[in-house]
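FAQ: What does the model actually see?

It sees only this:
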Amino acid sequence: MKSNTNEINLAWAGGFIDGEGCLRIAKHTNAGGVNPIYHLHLAISQNRLETLEHCQKILGVQSSICQFPYRKSFRRPVYLLTYLCANARDALILLLPYLVRKQAEARLALEFALRLQLRRGGRTPHSAEEIAIREEYYRRMQELK
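And it is asked to produce this:
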């Protein structure tokens, strides 16, 4: 009975993320860095903190919730649930069977994550070929949006 409940909860989380989530391969460059930094980013914004906490509990993967700075356009506080790098990968592995709209993005994100092994090492220069591969994943994800 418990696994059935877990599947129902994962299906709910998959639908919630399909509708409210943002999945991307982020690219950052910094002045002192040797390479552009590419990482996996899964985020869900919502004005109901309890809903984000519920999703966070279902997935059981390390993540963070923060509140957006106040803006006059907000009628209520807005919160952001974020999964980064290996934690985004782990969340996507759980969610993949339940995603519909974001299925192709999740498959590409997982391919990217498994190819890079999501390890630190931004100070070690990459070959031009490796940078081109990472940039190609970044470009392909943008095309899926």
